[in-house]
Amino acid sequence: MLREAYRIQNASVAANAYTDDAIIEYAYGSDRTRHVGREDIEASFSDFFSQIGTQEQIDLNFRIESSAPEGENLRDRGVYRLRFASGAASYGYFEVERVIQNGASAMFTFDRATDATRDAFEALPGPVLFDADSEQLDPAYYRRLTGRYQRPDGCDIIVTQSAYRLFVRDGCTEVWQGLNRVSGLEWTGGETVLSSNVTTTFKFDEPTTSDSQTLTMTQNGQTVSAKRNTAYTKDEISFQSSDDTSLSGLIYRPVEPSTKASVVLIHGSGPQDRNGYASIIAVIADEFAANGHAVIVFDKRGTGSSEGDWSRAGFDRLAEDVIAAEKALLADEALSDRPVIYAGSSQAGWVAATAIERGGQAKQIVLLGAAGAAISVREQNIYNTRIRMGCSGIDETSIDLALRQQNAFFDFVANPAMSDTLQAVTEQASADETIRDWLFPDAESVDLDGDNWFTTLSLEFDPITVWADYLGQMTFIFSEHDDSTPTDRAISRLKDTIGEDNLQTVLLDGAQHLGLLASGPCDASLSTVSRFHPDLFRALTDD
Q1: Which CATH number fits the domain 140-228, given the four candidates 2.40.30.110, 3.40.50.410, 2.40.128.50, 2.30.30.210?
Q2: Given Cys at both, which of 32, 107, 350, 458 links 372, Cβ 3.0 to 4.6 Å?
């Protein structure tokens, strides 16, 4: 009830969370106030909300430090967070007492709050009380844990973050673990990238005024400490795209002097921030920066701190954002004379090709697992569907029927006069229960004027024509077990069309879409794989 009251800024609803004779005490700094009874409590909430303004949405959340009986009531202690739509946040220690009715806690009888910090909130063990599954990591806090640490044996341990968790890459073994939070400074990892099992415990020392300096890892009863190895610094940056959308990100700057090319990292599909899906952008940025390249990463429009809406952005719009990031790099006095590399994975191929087509000045393209290096969105979708259906055990006859329906759908999107063909094949395919979930909508269900991926993206865009005219160096890295890109077709098409003067194709044997080792395309999810291909990062940053 109290959280909802803050969300809608309703003092009456907030006061109803308290008993008639409840007491609230606030002790913030030198201010001390006390409110007794529901009427006085409502007045205090009314005064608070009037200072905020109805346009400023508020989210209230808690981390509980302790919860124990207090006589016939329940007393909780912890830290609360008030987060505002503007991005600002405030924190406080709380101590509350709640009435227990019918075996469950109900209204508050006592509520005391004092000053706290973001660090106090983040350091506590356990999840937040509300919406824990969608809780994103506080970038300002967890950024201080990320970076490179070096073990006594000389191996670098690379800590990166996604929107939701930390990841750890072992630079010697290429083991990559997505971590599970115990507390802000303690995390665990399992035997695969994403695993709920615990094989390793990671503990960071307290980052006081700077970054955490020590990472302690415990596995199989053995504990090893790694010391921060500062290979680069990270500076916040904001810049405008060509439509005046404000985009935010980071520039990685190598500590050692370097004249190497600067890198613009490009997102894959979906709502990816500056760190990327499963922190893949951050992992690649780290490798480039540690090898002497300045790197710019940014939140895709509509994610993180960037304005806009990624779901309404086609390749042309996303390409303009890449060009804007390139210009931001070149506007930096220390980097203005450096050539630029476009790099990224997956959908980044189509975006990079469009950026070149629209005037981007990159002298080199480095792509991983990018269907956009050689085929269209339509071809990629058909291939991906075939692989995933096969992995689901669907027979070839049914797969062929589903793909015929999908191809009819793409024909209809390109030419609405093909609606009768789509309707006919959809009716036929819908009779097969095993493939109904794989079918695209029929003609009558499609809004071709809506903001759908199939109307936003250029389904038939062929990047090969761009690369055929491109004079810069191209390094395209493909994986044997990529379930999203037909590797053999892509490599063959590139070599037949472009030749090999300025093209290098790399095949990672036994790897999946993101360059992680896998036994096959059906065994390629992050819950089944555990390490990167040993040649991946060398291929990405090879000069």
Answers
A1: 2.40.128.50
A2: 350
